[in-house]
Amino acid sequence: MNSLPNNLKQIALFLERLPGIGQKTANRLAFYFLRLPESDLKEFAKNITFLKTKTKFCNVCMNLTEEETCSICLDKKRDSGVITVVEEVLDILSFETGNIYSGVYHVLHGRIDPLNHIGPEDIYIEKLLTRVKTSKVIEIILATNPDMEGEATAMFIKNQLSGLNKLNGKGFKITRLAYGLPIGGSLEYADYMTLRKAIEGRNSY
User: How many Cβ atoms are within 10 Å of 147's Cβ, its own excluded?
Assistant: First the structure.
């Protein structure tokens, strides 16, 4: 690394700070940038420069967008009465792959995690409750991750939503994503929690 020119070294050091990037990969990426045509590098640099200033939260679902409202919320073909609650924006990308879902989303930007001092007030739960109060909702799908923090977050939101149902007579369904054995998986390698969820979520056959 000491033999590299300083500007190239600084780029490699920055890339090394990215998740999943080690020193060798960071060096290779830095050299890749060096070999790019100058026009491509300028375009990339421009996008990085405006990343923070142009990217904002959707005023409806808290997805990332460059406008006031994201393209998903503006899409008239989607069912705005079905809201899937996810932890992060990247979770939306998983749902959008393959056109398996036609509803809308609400992004929490985190989950309840007392060990890291993250409570309900630190994520966008209140924004969700306000949205439910002021719109016609048929179903809320809780799609937080199936780990301890994700389950705690889903349970907290469920309790809050159940309270809204009772107080306002909203009458919407509250559902949770089914979890269990993956297609092509083997029972031999499944942990007890996965098997438990698979049994609890079993369907008629």
Answer: 11
